[in-house]
Amino acid sequence: MAMSASTRRTALGLLATIYSFSFIDRVVIALTAEQLKADFSISDLEIGLLSGTAFAIANSVAALPIARFAETYSRKWITTGALMIASVFAALCVLTTSFVQMLVLRMGIAASTAGVESPSHSMVSDMYEPAKRASAMSILMLGIPIASVIGSTLGGAIAESYGWRATFLAVGVLGVAVAAVSMIFVREPARVDVSVKEDRVGIGGVLMILMCDRCMRHLLIGVCIMGLGTYGSSTFLPAFFSRSFGLGPGNAGLAFGLLNGIGSFVGTILGGFGAEYLARRDQRWLVAFPGVGAIIGAPIYVIGLFQSNIYIAFPIMLVGSFFLFMVMGPAITAVHSVLGSRSRATGSALFLLMLNLVGQGLGPPLAGYVSDIVSAATFGSASFATECAGAAGQIAGSQCASAGAAGVRYAIAIFVLLYLWSGAHLLWGARNGKPPAERRAMA
Q1: Is 106 exposed, middle or buried (0-12, 13-18, 19+ CB in 10 A)?
Q2: N- or C-end of the chain: fewer Cβ atoms within 10 A?
Q3: In which domain, by residue range, is 36 found?
Q4: Which residue ranges in the chain fall short of pLDDT 70?
């Protein structure tokens, strides 16, 4: 039975909310990074491992089995149940007393949130006709800016007043509530575009469809490089605002939330609706449009990053971010355009596996490593790591603090400029590949 318009809107709204809570943990770890550094006496590299590599490995290991399960069984229960479990892991973070314990719980959160991503993508593709999928997928992706705004403003305020443990507890409790409400009100959509041939496509078959197509191949490479830039830079943005402009956790979280929240909200809408509009004439714009955005946005963002006044830096970085956040809705829609209903969750899982392993797995630790190297060079001594460890590196006006501010600024700039490379791949793929509609007909 087809879903009514109101049922579809309710489901899409709740799925976007679920998506936001699956992403909030990634925001919260960035918000509380300075407090975790002081509490556990760890480096920027270790923060990168905590926020990136551990999450990416666990998420990637769980993603494909969950996606294959979602091709046959109820995606609604997989998605809502996954958020419930992830939220419980988040709440348990209040009990950690060491870096290793936090690392283990982070991996539990990551494995659980794998059940939110690809099944929800598959549901949205079955809820909307192909001509409306890019905009619908972008509305789902609005969960990311929702997470950035709510997680940063609320999480930053809680962290400043009550500490990082209270922040994780609040996120966990709210996530459980959202999962419970969604279990009641979200309906499972009927699967569409199913054929015998598509039913038999396995993981290897889906991978071959994507990797043997020139446009899809460049899209995946470009998105992986973009992931390096996104995760490598955003992990250290709260630290950038704190170290460069002397903001406390609350105000740094607010600046981070507004920048990523407003930027990703506008960029996601612009990317989804803009690419969908242009794709009515030529489907290759689904891939080319976000590529253009990446090339325009990166230099603008970096110009803002090197301003000494936050009231000048912030609006310039915000304009740049509008263009940098245009990719996800159109990219997933392009991937789904060459796959059937019982292959799309697997396609999304493969897409996210590559993005997470490369982007989140390598981006934060590499950015942290670059930050540590530049900080040590600015400090002028190889003893930076020992002299400026923990709270000693956060004393306002100290040589340690100045060196740390320079390190994180240059690290973010280097990783944002990776968007130029990513955008070139997207444009090259769109120029040399067949339109998705034509490829779908040939499959």
Answers
A1: buried
A2: N
A3: 5-186+194-442
A4: 1-2, 193-200, 382-397, 433-443
Furthest CA-CA distance within the chain: 68
H helix intervals, 237-327: 237-245, 249-279, 285-305, 310-324
**Distant-in-sequence contacts of 278-283, Cβ < 8 A, 24+ apart:** 279/134, 280/131, 282/435, 283/337, 283/435, 283/436, 283/437, 283/438
* Residue 32 φ then ψ, to 5°: -95, 10
The structure's pTM equals 0.75
The two structure tokens encoding residue 422: 């990513």
Query: DSSP string covering 404-427, please?
Result: HHHHHHHHHHHHHTHHHHHHHHHH
Q: Alpha-carbon distance 153 to 368, whole Å?
A: 24
Residue-wise pLDDT for 98-135, tens only, equals 888 998 998 999 899 989 988 998 899 889 888 788 88
Q: Structural domain tally of the chain?
A: 1
